[in-house]
C-alpha cells in the first residue's frame, strides 16, 4: 500500500494479459457436456475396443456446433445405433441369465464351458399349446386341422421359425401309465414340450410360469405364445399380426378384459385372495384372456429370471397380467384373437377379416371341440398355404 502506485496503463495491460491467459486455459480443458454424454453412450455397446474412437471424439478441435447439418444428423444416427446395440446386448445377457437359471432349477449340471457353448435355437415364435393327460382326442383334432404334423411341422419350424409344441408336465406318480402314454404319443409325433411340473387344474399359474422359463432356455424367439388345446388358430394371420409388433421390446398381446373378482368358493373361477382387489364386486386389472396371448422376448426372459418371486393367483391369466402390470409394457387389445365360432368368424372371413383365433366364450374354448374343431376349421380356416405366404 505504501509502494508506488501502478499507472492506469499498466493496470490495463495486466487485465488484457490475464484475459488471454484465461481464454487459453479454458480452450485446453473445456469439453462440451453434450459431447461427453454422447461419447459415454457410444462406448458402452462396443466396450474397450472403441476407446480410440472416443478419444478422437473428445478432441477439442472437433466442435459439433461448427459442423454441417449432415454431420449433426450423422451424430444423432450414431447415437441411435448405439442405443439399439445396447438394448440388444442387454436382451442377450438377460436371455443367457434366464437359460442359466432355468438349467439350474431343472437340476441339470453343466460345466461353465458347456454352458458358455449352449446356443439357443432361433425362432420367430414359440407356440405352446396347453394340454392335459386326458386331452389326447383334443390334440388329434388340432393335428387334423390347423396344426401341421410330421415333416410339415419340421419344415414350418426350419423355414418360417414357427415352433409349435403341446405343453405338459408329468403325473403325480412319474413313470406311471399316464406318463408312458404321453411318451408313446411324443415318440410318434415329436410335438411335445415336457415340463418338470405336476399336472393339476389348480397349478396352471405355476405351469404357465414354467412354460415361459423353459421355452426361453431352448429357443431364442421374438415372441412366445400360449394357447389352449380347444382353440382354433389361423397361423398365417397370427404371424402377420405378431410381425406388426416385432420392433417393440416389451409387448403383451391378447384380448384384454377385466372380469369380476369372484369371492364365493362355489364359483368356478373363485379367487382365494379376492380381498387383495378391494371391496366385493370389484374387477381385476386389465389382462389378456387365458385362451390365447403372446408376449415378446424381453418379457419372457423377465418371467424366467424372476420366476421364484412371481406371485401366483388362482387364475393363470390373472397371474400373467399381474407379473407385467408394474412394468413398462405395451398392452395390445387384439380382438381378432377372440372371434366367435361360426357364423361369427365365417362372416368376418367372407368380409376379408380372417380371425387369428376362434372359440366360444361360454365354454372358454370351442364347445365340444373334438367334434366341432373341423367344422370351425372348414368354415373359418385361412387355407393351408396362407402361412407360407407371410413375409417375416
Brief rundown of the structure:
The protein has helices at residues 8-29, 33-46, 51-57, 69-105, 112-116, 136-143, 151-160, 177-189, 204-218, 235-243, 297-305, 316-325, 344-350, 369-380; strands at residues 121-130, 162-170, 192-198, 219-228, 232-233, 251-257, 287-296, 330-333, 357-358. It has 392 residues and is an alpha/beta fold. Helix 2 (33-46) packs across helix 4, helix 4 (69-105) packs across helix 11 and helix 9 (204-218) crosses helix 12.
* Secondary structure tally, helices: 14
Uncertain runs with pLDDT below 50, 5 residues or more? 27-65, 106-117
Along the chain, the helix and strand elements come as HHHHHEHHEHEHEEHEEHHEHEH
Strand order of the largest sheet: 3-2-1-4-7-6-8
Describe the fold and architecture:
The chain is α/β, with parallel strands linked by helices. The chain contains 14 helices and nine strands. It has helices spanning 8-29, 33-46, 51-57, 69-105, 112-116, 136-143, 151-160, 177-189, 204-218, 235-243, 297-305, 316-325, 344-350, 369-380, and strands at residues 121-130, 162-170, 192-198, 219-228, 232-233, 251-257, 287-296, 330-333, 357-358. The strands form two sheets. Strands 3-2-1-4-7-6-8 form a seven-stranded mixed sheet, with helices on both faces. Strand 2 (162-170), helix 8 and strand 3 form a beta-alpha-beta unit. The radius of gyration is 30 Å and the shape is elongated. The N and C termini lie far apart (86 Å).
Amino acid at each position: 500500500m505504501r509502494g508506488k502506485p501502478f499507472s492506469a496503463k499498466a493496470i490495463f495491460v495486466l487485465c488484457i494479459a490475464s484475459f488471454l491467459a484465461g481464454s487459453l486455459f479454458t480452450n485446453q480443458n473445456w469439453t462440451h457436456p453434450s459431447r461427453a454424454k454422447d461419447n459415454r453412450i457410444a462406448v458402452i455397446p462396443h466396450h474397450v475396443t472403441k476407446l480410440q474412437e472416443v478419444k478422437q471424439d473428445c478432441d477439442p478441435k472437433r466442435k459439433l456446433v461448427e459442423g454441417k447439418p449432415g454431420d449433426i444428423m450423422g451424430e444423432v444416427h450414431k447415437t441411435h445405433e448405439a442405443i439399439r446395440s445396447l438394448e440388444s446386448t442387454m436382451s442377450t445377457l438377460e436371455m443367457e441369465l434366464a437359460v442359466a437359471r432355468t438349467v439350474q432349477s431343472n437340476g441339470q449340471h453343466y460345466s461353465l464351458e458347456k454352458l458358455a457353448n449352449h446356443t439357443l435355437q432361433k425362432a420367430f415364435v414359440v407356440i405352446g399349446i396347453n394340454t392335459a393327460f386326458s386331452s389326447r382326442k383334443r390334440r388329434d383334432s388340432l393335428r387334423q386341422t390347423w396344426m401341421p404334423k410330421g415333416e410339415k411341422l419340421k419344415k414350418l419350424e426350419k423355414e418360417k421359425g414357427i415352433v409349435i409344441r403341446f405343453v405338459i408336465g408329468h403325473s403325480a406318480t412319474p413313470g406311471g401309465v399316464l406318463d408312458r402314454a404321453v411318451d408313446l404319443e411324443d415318440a410318434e409325433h415329436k410335438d411335445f414340450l415336457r415340463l418338470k411340473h405336476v399336472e393339476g387344474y389348480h397349478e396352471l399359474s405355476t405351469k404357465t410360469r414354467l412354460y415361459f422359463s423353459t421355452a426361453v432356455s431352448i429357443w431364442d424367439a421374438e415372441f412366445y405364445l400360449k394357447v389352449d388345446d380347444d382353440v382354433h388358430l389361423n397361423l398365417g394371420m397370427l404371424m402377420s399380426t405378431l410381425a406388426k409388433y416385432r420392433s417393440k421390446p416389451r409387448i403383451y398381446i391378447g384380448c384384454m378384459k377385466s372380469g369380476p373378482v369372484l369371492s364365493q368358493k362355489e364359483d368356478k373361477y373363485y379367487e382365494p385372495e379376492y380381498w387383495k382387489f378391494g371391496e366385493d364386486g370389484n374387477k381385476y386389472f386389465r389382462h389378456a384372456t387365458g385362451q390365447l396371448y403372446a408376449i415378446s422376448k424381453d418379457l419372457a426372459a423377465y418371467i424366467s429370471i424372476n420366476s421364484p418371486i412371481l406371485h401366483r393367483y388362482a387364475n393363470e391369466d390373472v397371474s400373467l397380467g399381474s407379473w407385467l402390470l408394474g412394468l413398462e409394457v405395451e398392452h395390445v387389445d387384439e380382438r381378432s384373437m377372440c372371434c366367435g365360432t361360426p357364423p361369427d368368424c365365417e362372416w368376418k372371413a367372407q368380409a376379408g377379416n380372417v380371425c387369428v383365433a376362434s372359440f366360444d366364450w361360454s365354454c372358454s374354448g370351442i364347445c365340444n371341440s373334438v367334434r366341432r374343431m373341423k367344422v370351425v376349421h372348414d368354415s373359418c380356416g385361412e387355407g393351408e398355404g396362407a402361412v407360407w405366404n407371410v413375409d417375416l
